[in-house]
Amino acid sequence: MPCVYKITYPNGKIYVGLDLTDSINYFGSASSALIAADFTPEQRRDMTIRKEILWESQAATRAEVSAKEVEFIRALRANDPAIGYNQWPRASHR
Question: Can you give the pTM of this predicted structure?
């Protein structure tokens, strides 16, 4: 079922993404380099990462799922580098 999910890393930072495949093993396409820079080699040896489904719909189109993804990215500020790993849409400067 198409969904929008939130990944939470051990440092509290988040990544919001969408999945159109209903794959239990899909954890998004966040930048590995950005994430790796936040963890020491020792921290990387034992990590727990949480995946939460924020929204799902059996009837939503790809465009509707994408719009929901952007809505959650903005609402949760996942595109603010202090909070999350989403690089798009660009965070607006206030």
Answer: 0.93
